[in-house]
Amino acid sequence: MGVVRAPYRPWLLPLLVLFISLFHTTLCNNAKINFREKEKQVLDQILGPGRYDARIRPSGLNGTGVDGPTVVRVNFFLRSISKIDDYKMEYSVQLTFREQWLDERLKFNDFGGRLKYLTLTEASRVWMPDLFFSNEKEGHFHNIIMPNVYIRIFPYGSVLYSIRISLTLSCPMNLKLYPLDRQVCSLRMASYGWTTDDLVFLWKEGDPVQVVKNLHLPRFTLEKFLTDYCNSKTNTGEYSCLKVDLLFKREFSYYLIQIYIPCCMLVIVSWVSFWLDQGAVPARVSLGVTTLLTMATQTSGINASLPPVSYTKAIDVWTGVCLTFVFGALLEFALVNYASRSDMHRENMKKKRRELESAQSMDAASDLMDTDSNTTFAMVRQCEVHMQPPRPNCCKIWLSKFPTRSKRIDVISRITFPLVFALFNLVYWMTYLFREEAEEN
User: What is the DSSP string of 332-360?
Assistant: First the structure.
């Protein structure tokens, strides 16, 4: 039985070789595509001379031809808060600031999703919003090792601008409850030249403000923050504005240890003079003057770290009353010293009076012998019947144990000063702690 052979076709072999070579060339070309070179070509294409003008803002809403404002969405990451200055009423922050908007002039081919975005480091190459921080005092960019800034352009024309900056911002403070106060410090961002007809700032949806974890401040605690809008109208138009309110609570433990407890101790030390002997004049004077000068120095040191405001602060009430108590203890000794000298003068006068009365009683003794003793006895009995014994007074009985006025002043001061100071503490803490809770609510 014979074998059937396929007919010989000589034109198939060259065609097969050509197909294999083309397929191999295509695979090699796809494997050797340099997307960094493609990125350069895309940048030259969309940002080349005569193709893009950075002076012109992007068109209206999503490029629909509507002559509407350019919408810029803002968010930032709060990296640190270095200080909050009560005297200058300012605070310093470092943050990563981001803006995002749509510029359809920057659309490009992403080569099937392989070119995710283009990266620039020169902000002058594209149009940028003219945002500024309205309550800024000082600020600077970070350029170590390279400028901390980038611009990402996505295939559909979205632009992301990110930069790391440090700012010193003003923070007007109300110090009436200092150091039991809470302060609200704002960060305000607004357009400088574009009105709301041309440019609108909006907070990014979701989580526009992020704060670094474990944020530690020396004398404050960041309780919460709130985002809001603060558009302003001037003679030149209405300008878009964003703001963040940072609510800080002052840490009271520092002031309790450094101010309140030392002042209490000084007031209590000034009471020691009530227990010293009245004749120890140098000891009592030196104790009173020393505590008074120390309290005055403490007060001046406290006021040196605060601005000279026109209203009374909570710490002013505390230091003022403590200073009054120390001064009162010094005045008490002056009163005791005066009463002691008065007591001595009175004792001398009584002594002379007794001597005079004893001399007069000797002269009248002979005359009294001639009077009727029965009549005298009857009169004495009548007086005893009509006279009623006085009711005992506890205070008078207790004070009678101290025959001199100077000693009585010391004893009364030992009780009065601590009681009044305790009453002041009760009123002070109830007043300011309730006011603090009311402001918080």
Answer: HHHHHHHHHHHHHHHHHHHHHHHHHHHHH
Helix or strand holding residue 324 (H, E):
helix 314-369
Summarised one tens digit per residue, pLDDT across range 154-199 is 999 999 999 999 999 999 999 999 999 999 999 999 999 999 999 9
Cβ-proximal residues to 171 (8 Å cutoff; 6+ apart), any chain: 84, 89, 90, 91, 135, 183, 185, 186
Helix (H, G, I), strand (E, B) or coil at 38: helix
pLDDT in tens, 210-238: 999 988 888 899 999 999 999 999 899 99
**Pairing between β-strand 70-85 and β-strand 209-211 as defined by DSSP bridges:** parallel
Q: What is the dihedral of CA 400, 401, 404, 408, to 10 degrees?
A: -90
Segment (H or E) for 214: none
The whole-angstrom separation of Cα 389 and Cα 403 is 22
Q: How far is CA 381 from CA 22, 377, 385, 386, 387, in A?
A: 152, 6, 6, 9, 10
Q: Which residues pair with 120 in a beta bridge?
A: 151
Closest CA to 302 of 62, 87, 83, 100: 87
- Residues 206/112, Cβ–Cβ less than 8 Å: no
Alpha-carbon distances of 227 from 31, 78, 207, 246, 248, rounded to whole Å:
49, 13, 10, 9, 15
